[in-house]
Design goal:
This protein is mainly alpha-helical and 320 residues long. 48% of the residues lie in helices and 2% in strands. It is built from 14 helices and two strands, in the order H-H-H-H-H-H-H-H-E-H-H-E-H-H-H-H.
Length: 320
């Protein structure tokens, strides 16, 4: 009998450990915050009615969070006192946006489910809804992440791919996060919505030869050649349907109308050419692969169980 009780206790402990460190689940908040989904969706609808571009911005926010320390909400932390966050990193400064929308979602969630839902999970849900509300696919978002109490300016500067990256560098950067070349090409399709700053595509439109001449001339109208001139001027990543989530991005690549150097690298005589052509001709395939890759990216090193915390304010670590 004693051995049976010992075995029973051991099993119970193992189950508890599994629950604390197990996989994320779409039903994680089913009992603790059953209205989470509708709250996020309603707040996102309001945000996109104010500015449709925000859908693209929140997809990018999720990407920039997950690639640095994992999907832990670290990108949301402000610099406070001696604490240095990730917002000032080269790929993020004056570029990553949407923090106010996350703040609003968090405030709305806290009204009904105080202290329950992590900021990291809110970012993941906002990215999904931003995609769907602009005409893209939807998916069940695995939930149960907790929020980091740390951030890394150095990792933000080193781990986020540059818009000037070549294909090999992109494949390596995504591979380092457990993402395949197919994931890279599918996730890059997020550039079917949103805008980029002149400083990030100037080199491509003036110096590269793998670009449609008429397209380069069009972009040069608002992006001067001189460094420091018009750096923050915006251009749509997809000139045809810049605020609709579709597969036009890949048709642009086939026509050598990728705005960023890193975009056009996906269709430039390399290993991803065939997949780009498939996505350009088959929007359903792209939508399916994109959704799957977003789930996979959302699984990069999440904090679960008792790790991290549930921040009450997404911008600062809870005071002890």
């Amino acid at each position: 009998m004693a051995s049976f009780r010992t075995w029973h206790c051991l099993v119970a402990l193992l189950l508890l450990a599994s629950a604390a460190h197990g996989q994320l689940s779409p039903s994680f908040y089913a009992t603790t915050c059953p209205t989470l989904g509708p709250i996020v969706r309603a707040t996102m609808i309001k945000a996109l009615l104010t500015e449709r571009r925000m859908g693209a911005s929140l997809v990018r926010l999720f990407f920039h969070d997950c690639f640095v320390q994992g999907c832990d909400g670290s990108i949301l932390l402000d610099d406070v006192g001696s604490f240095v966050g990730e917002k000032g990193a080269g790929p993020n400064a004056n570029s990553v946006r949407g923090f106010e929308v996350i703040d609003q979602i968090k405030a709305n969630v806290e009204l009904l489910c105080p202290g329950v839902v992590s900021c990291a999970d809110i970012v993941a849900l906002a990215a999904r809804d931003g995609t769907f509300l602009l005409g893209g696919p939807t998916w069940a978002v695995p939930l149960g992440r907790r929020d980091s109490t740390t951030a890394s300016l150095n990792l933000a500067n080193s781990d986020l791919p540059s818009p000037a990256s070549d294909l090999a560098t992109l494949i390596s950067a995504f591979g380092n996060k457990g993402l395949s070349a197919r994931d890279l090409t599918a996730l890059s399709g997020a550039h079917t919505i949103g805008f980029a700053q002149c400083q990030n595509f100037r080199g491509h439109i003036y110096n590269d030869t793998d670009i449609n001449a008429a397209f380069a001339a069009l972009r040069q109208r608002t992006c001067p050649a001189a460094q420091g001139s018009g750096d923050s001027n915006l251009a749509p990543l997809d000139v045809q349907t810049q605020l609709v989530f579709d597969n036009a991005y890949y048709r642009n690549l086939v026509g050598q109308r990728g705005l960023l150097h890193s975009d056009q690298e996906l269709f430039n005589g390399g290993s991803q050419d065939a997949l780009v052509k498939q996505y350009s001709a088959n929007p359903a395939l792209f939508a399916s692969d994109f959704a799957a890759a977003m789930v996979k990216m959302g699984n990069i090193s999440p904090l679960t169980g008792s790790a991290g915390q549930i921040r009450s304010n997404c911008r600062v670590v809870n005071s002890s």
